[in-house]
Every structure is written in C-alpha cells, then in structure tokens.
Amino acid sequence: MVIATIFLSVIGMSAGFVLGTRHEAVPVAERSDAPGTPDTQVSTDKRTECPEQMQETAERRGITGTLHQVLRVRTTDLASDTGTETTVWICETPDGALVYQANRGDEESEWIEGKTALFLTRVTSEGDTYVATADDGNKFFVNMSELRIKTKKGEERHDVEVE
What we know:
By secondary structure, this protein is of the alpha+beta class. It folds into two domains: 1-41, no CATH class; 52-162, no CATH class. 20% of the residues lie in helices and 33% in strands. It is built from two helices and nine strands, in the order ααβββββββββ. The protein has helices at residues 2-24, 52-60, and strands spanning 68-75, 86-92, 98-104, 117-120, 123-126, 129-133, 139-142, 146-151, 154-162. A nine-stranded antiparallel sheet has the order 4-3-2-1-9-8-7-6-5, with helices on one face. A hairpin with a 2-residue loop joins strand 5 (123-126) and strand 6. The protein is globular.
C-alpha cells in the first residue's frame, strides 16, 4: 500500500510539473531564442502593401524593399479637368521614409507616371496631414477628409473618403 501511494504521488507530481511548465511556456514565435532575427519577431505581414505599379516606380527611383500603406483615400468629387476620381496613397519605405502616389481612378485604371499618375518622394507629416512637394514647387496636402493641391495658379480642394 505504501509503495502504491508513493507511486501515485510521483505520477501526480510529474503530471502537475508538466502541465505547469506548458502553461508558463512562451509561444515559439514570441521567444527571443526563436528562429529569426531578435527584435524582429513582430510580423509586418498584416500591413497592406502599396500597389504593384507604385512598388515598380519606387524601385526605378532607387527605393528598395516593400512599400506599406499608411493612408489611402479616394476623391469623392470628380476632378473638373478629367471627369474622374483620383486615388492617393501615402506609403512608408522600409527605412521609414514616406512617399506619395496619386493615380486617376484607382490601381486598376490606366497608370502612366507623369500622365495619369504622380509619384513623389519629398513627403512630410504635419499632424494628421501629409504634405508632398513636387520638384516644381506644387504641394499636395492629404488627410482623411481632403486632398488640397496648391500650385502657382492657385489652390483646389477635393473631399475624400478613406479606402
């Protein structure tokens, strides 16, 4: 009887120990000794990538790596000169810089840099507004409620909705 009690106690302690260590174990993806580079265990896969056409333009401009979307808006009023809506993306480069991309229509529409599309690399953040500056001095202000375009000829404003 004493042997049986000792045997059952050992089994009970072993089971308790195993269950206790499993409960306290940190999942492999969160452990610092998990495969991969330390401090890079947080997945960026959930961030939305910017359109392929934009990725290609960035690569032609010497920007390497995947661009991730920070903001995407579409004008809700038709542009007077084209009769179409415009989609604007603010994206982040792997090194944290911001870039601006606008295209008449959306990513499925005709995409020709300098004709229907505009890619700018001089982008800053001012509060909740992103400001992109073109080489000719034109400025594009975009946030979750409007797109403003300031040129030498004046300023135009478009209402936007977040996509």
